[in-house]
């Protein structure tokens, strides 16, 4: 397979690279703040996760035939646009979330489920602000490395009246250290700074020096745990750990808000922007 790979081919929203024999990187670069629009999910992340897994499996088979001691080792890093220091992701586009809320269940929840069961270690390189759906992507990864710079993480839907899908709450219940932290995330819409995230165990490392240093640390963390993928049970173990979360992710969604309320919600957002 030839890297880099850009998806989709026309007006790409992400790029896949393969910097070492056991590491893959997905770089998100849609717009100025990496909003997780339908196109990003459907034409970008969904096929990108397929490509990386397929390449890992094919590489593993070849390496085992060749007697390579690193056969089966692998890790994936997801990072925001590398030529900036401001955003990992700013979440869903506001209008999409209320006008096309079905795409959460159709395109976004399957990505969360995929990350929660991915067969190799996943690391989110949070190289800037990580809001809403971006925060969910980060928490669905196995590990997180965060910039020590001006970077916040928040689920701020409480502040503008967006109801929370059950799957999102289930993910944070599984990943948060306590009900008090979950309350702070969902009911207070708290903006966590990097050192708070580290102290609470919501991230594994905080790194000085900008995007490239964050990515470097994320790759090193992925490489540390990459050997644990060789027995092919990494994803299977996670299925058991996150069993209840996965049930919520796959559950048929309730209607987020009536059509008239959705229109008013969009109008109120426009007034705020």
Automatic annotation (TrEMBL):
<dbReference type="GO" id="GO:0006635">
    <property type="term" value="P:fatty acid beta-oxidation"/>
</dbReference>
<dbReference type="GO" id="GO:0004165">
    <property type="term" value="F:delta(3)-delta(2)-enoyl-CoA isomerase activity"/>
</dbReference>
<dbReference type="GO" id="GO:0005777">
    <property type="term" value="C:peroxisome"/>
</dbReference>
<protein>
    <submittedName>
        <fullName>ClpP/crotonase</fullName>
    </submittedName>
</protein>
<dbReference type="InterPro" id="IPR029045">
    <property type="entry name" value="ClpP/crotonase-like_dom_sf"/>
</dbReference>
<dbReference type="InterPro" id="IPR001753">
    <property type="entry name" value="Enoyl-CoA_hydra/iso"/>
</dbReference>
<dbReference type="Pfam" id="PF00378">
    <property type="entry name" value="ECH_1"/>
</dbReference>
């Amino acid at each position: 397979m030839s890297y880099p790979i850009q998806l989709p081919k026309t007006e790409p929203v992400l790029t896949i690279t393969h910097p070492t024999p056991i590491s893959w990187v997905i770089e998100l670069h849609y717009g100025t703040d990496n909003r997780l629009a339908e196109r990003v999910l459907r034409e970008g992340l969904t096929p990108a996760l397929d490509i990386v897994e397929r390449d890992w499996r094919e590489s593993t088979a070849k390496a085992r035939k060749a007697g390579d001691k690193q056969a089966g080792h692998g890790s994936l890093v997801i990072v925001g646009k590398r030529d900036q220091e401001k955003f990992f992701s700013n979440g869903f586009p506001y209008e999409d979330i209320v006008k096309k809320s079905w795409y959460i269940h159709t395109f976004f929840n399957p990505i969360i489920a995929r990350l929660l069961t991915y067969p190799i270690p996943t690391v989110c390189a949070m190289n800037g602000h990580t809001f809403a759906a971006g925060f969910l992507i980060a928490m669905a990864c196995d590990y997180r490395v965060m910039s020590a710079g001006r970077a916040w993480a928040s689920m701020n839907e409480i502040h503008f009246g967006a109801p929370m899908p059950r799957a999102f709450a289930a993910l944070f219940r599984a990943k948060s250290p306590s009900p008090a932290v979950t309350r702070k995330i969902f009911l207070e819409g708290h903006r966590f700074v990097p050192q708070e995230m580290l102290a609470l165990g919501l991230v594994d490392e905080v790194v000085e020096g900008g995007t490239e240093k964050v990515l470097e640390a994320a790759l090193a963390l992925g490489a540390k745990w990459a050997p644990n993928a060789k027995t092919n049970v990494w994803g299977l173990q996670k299925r058991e750990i996150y069993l209840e979360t996965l049930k919520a992710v796959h559950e048929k969604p309730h209607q987020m808000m009536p059509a008239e309320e959705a229109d008013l919600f969009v109008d109120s957002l426009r007034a705020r922007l």
